[in-house]
Write a structure and sequence with these properties.
By secondary structure, the chain is mainly alpha-helical. It folds into two domains: about 5-40 and about 50-120, no CATH class; about 125-255, Orthogonal Bundle (Helix Hairpins), CATH 1.10.287. It has five helices and two strands; from the N terminus they run αααααββ. The chain has a two-stranded antiparallel ribbon with strand order 1-2. α1 (about 5-15) packs across α4 (about 85-170), α3 packs across α4 (about 85-170) and α4 runs antiparallel to α5. The longest helix has about 90 residues, at about 85-170.
């Protein structure tokens, strides 16, 4: 990668064979299309740069809104065939140098700020990923505990119902009381049978509560997993952009160019 400033690369190209000037030089230098700049006012930081460069011999800048990228690409791609045109091209490149210097500084500043933002964002997103992972595993453990509790309640309910059926079978066959049972024995049987029915009723209530709790926890697991996956995807996106790789931008739904490495002189 050529780390020279854009100004130096333009002068190198201009001092050599103009026919060999590569219009892609600007695109490679910026890494992305620069939005069209608003006209400069006298209050701007660079007051020495006029809003319109007055070219000699009646050269009039196009009224069409154009970016610095397209203007410079068109200028470098031209192939003057007379000394006068060659001088004019050199004059334009020389007078554009202050603007190019500012563009270089602007791109470096924005890239540095973006990379600092990405680094800070990675720290935050990884902390969020750790918390989301803990939350997800907690929900899974709670669901597993609820499943186990439901199985225990179901087993207890099945035992209570089986015991009630056994008592009902004894009563149906007339084997629930002695042949000449007294009042105490009859009362004990009645209490025993009623207690068995109450146990089944209570087991059914507990089973209903256990099922409701299991279902509630079940519906908490998937959202926790989706949040963890979304954070993990965002972490990958930030990491790829910081590394200068292409990434999938969820806002535009397309593969965007990475921020790239900061140029160093």
């Amino acid at each position: 990668m050529n780390h020279k400033p854009l100004i130096q690369r333009l002068h190198d190209s201009a001092n050599g064979d103009s026919a060999a000037a590569d219009a892609d030089l600007i695109a490679r230098s910026f890494g992305a299309v620069i939005p069209a700049a608003a006209p400069r006012s006298h209050n701007n930081s660079v007051t020495s740069m006029p809003s319109v460069i007055e070219a000699p011999s009646g050269i009039v800048p196009s009224k069409e809104t154009r970016t610095a990228l397209t203007v410079l690409a068109d200028l470098i791609a031209t192939k003057p065939d007379t000394e006068e045109l060659i001088d004019r091209k050199q004059w334009l490149i020389t007078n554009l140098s202050p603007l190019l210097h500012e563009v270089d500084e602007f791109v470096d500043c924005c890239t540095e700020r973006r990379r600092a933002f990405l680094k800070d964002s990675l720290v935050r997103i990884r902390a969020q990923c750790r918390e989301a992972e803990k939350h997800y595993h907690l929900q899974v453990r709670n669901l597993n505990a609820a499943e186990l509790a439901l199985q225990n309640v179901a087993a207890a309910g099945a035992n209570a119902y089986q015991y009630l059926q056994q008592l009902a079978a004894l009563e149906k066959n007339g084997q629930h009381l002695p042949k000449w049972a007294n009042e105490k024995e009859t009362a004990e049987w009645t209490e025993r049978y009623a207690g068995a029915k109450e146990s089944v009723t209570e087991a059914n209530k507990e089973a209903g509560l256990a099922v409701a709790e299991r279902n509630r926890l079940h519906f908490l697991v998937e959202p926790a997993l989706r949040k963890l996956e979304a954070l993990a995807d965002e972490e990958i996106r930030l990491r790829n952009e910081l590394a200068g790789k292409q990434f999938y931008d969820p806002e535009i739904g397309l593969s965007s160019q990475p921020a790239g490495q900061v140029r160093t002189e």
